[in-house]
Amino acid sequence: MAIFGSGPVGLMAQKAAWINGASRVIAIDPLNYRLEKARKVNNVDTLNPDEVDVVEAIREMTGGRGADVCVDCVGFEPERTIIDKAKALINFEVGSMKVLDMAFKAVRRSGTVTIMGVYGSTYDNFPMHRIFDKGLTIRQGQAPVLNYIDHLIDLVKEEKVVLDDIITHTLPLSEVAHGYEIFDKKEEDCVKVVLKP
Ligand SMILES: NC(=O)c1ccc[n+]([C@@H]2O[C@H](COP(=O)([O-])OP(=O)(O)OC[C@H]3O[C@@H](n4cnc5c(N)ncnc54)[C@H](O)[C@@H]3O)[C@@H](O)[C@H]2O)c1
């Protein structure tokens, strides 16, 4: 399973992948401190898209086949080049679907792409041909939390999942603005902030 993005959502998706029987979990993120966190807390393989061709690397790691499942935990605000930004401007698009595009390329034929990251715009050049040709299944949307919460609490109670290992900052409520700032700007190796009233 290949999981794009190693923020709080990606780290949780990595945990869910192991719990649900994945045989190998590959985490992708341009921030090395987040990949380090992913290796430490979730024992995953990691790829940095600024250092390797992620699609090629995933193909190589899966015997040329591609990942069974690709999960987009980035959404429409990935790190973008000036060219990405210019293309978005010309096409009247908000952000970019470049991560989703990578997921469609890196998944195996008849595989599944799950979209957890948020998208809120239309996109030109949507790769319908690739989705059709590979016979892909796409799952996406806001997490239906009420549907799963009892099961998830049971997983914590039974110690099948650890949650607090992704927390990097515990702050008083009076420092909420600072907490948001370091999370937004990815400063101080921030991954997950918990506020204590
Ligand atoms: N579906 C839902 O119910 C739900 C719930 C909560 C959050 N979300 C969404 O999930 C997404 C992730 O949330 P988060 O809190 O983990 O955010 P985050 O910003 O902390 O994490 C996103 C990660 O993606 C990485 N990234 C950027 N460009 C990349 C690329 N090209 N390839 C791989 N990784 C790349 C960033 O470095 C960052 O670590 C957001 O879009 C958020 O809105 C969805």
UniProtKB/TrEMBL annotation:
Cofactor(s) required, per the database record: Zn(2+)
SUPFAM superfamilies: NAD(P)-binding Rossmann-fold domains
Positions of the Alcohol dehydrogenase-like C-terminal domain: 8-75
Keywords: Metal-binding, Zinc
Pfam families: ADH_zinc_N
Official protein name in the record: Alcohol dehydrogenase-like C-terminal domain-containing protein
Record organism: Mucilaginibacter gynuensis
